[in-house]
UniProtKB/TrEMBL annotation:
The keyword Iron does not apply. It holds the Pfam family PseudoU_synth_1. Gene3D superfamilies: Pseudouridine synthase I, catalytic domain, C-terminal subdomain, Pseudouridine synthase I, catalytic domain, N-terminal subdomain. This is tRNA pseudouridine synthase A.
Amino acid sequence: MRNLCMTVSYDGTAYNGFQIQPIGKTVQGEIERAMAMLTGEDVKIHGSGRTDAGVHARGQVFHVHTNASIPVSKWPVALNSRLPQDIVVLTAIEVPLLFHSRRSAKRKTYRYSIRTGKYPDVFRRNYEFHHYNPLRVHAMRDAMSALVGEHDFTTFTSIHSTKRSHVRTIYKAWLEEEGDVLHFYFTGNGFLYNMVRIIMGTLMRIGEGKMEAARMAAILAARDRSLAGPKAMAHGLTLWSVEYEELDFEREARQ
């Protein structure tokens, strides 16, 4: 038995999320179908985390146990020839059997993109939330600083969350400007259901002047979902990267 760890990018527009659902097409389902075609095995892949319907991934990670003897370097090309064009496997590494893509992960980074201005970009409309009016960028940046550190993020998760603890650590939160586009990055040890999207809905309220940046710390401390903003649209969100102690996927992708 081998344990293979792979990175995959996907456009989530046409999918009902990463994880297999009772109804609807999923990224996991497409990858498992491709693996069955390639190896004849009925396998189950395990992702580093879920992404919602419509959410994208630049660097999702999954592992899979297989008896197939295909050289590890051949897996990406072999799978990509059997996958839809909106799913691309980038790297494959053989890892110890105890490795788990979710439990072994140390840091994850998400990016949320907002385009401001009168018109959306027709070519990037599936990857950016279009906000018609300018936003108070400095206020949004100030509010993000209140999220850094270890906190109980109950305010910023769905009331349907099933996690026993809502305590997570945000290591970094920063904003980059690219012309009319604002890219918000969040790096942490883990994220709750809808956490980044609810944070972004709150930041947009601050950017619109409907909420003061100074309130962010109190809203976080209150652990009350009703105090936060609405959940932001899914298509602006991308799982940017997943980091592990001993794996360098960026290096593997360059080789």
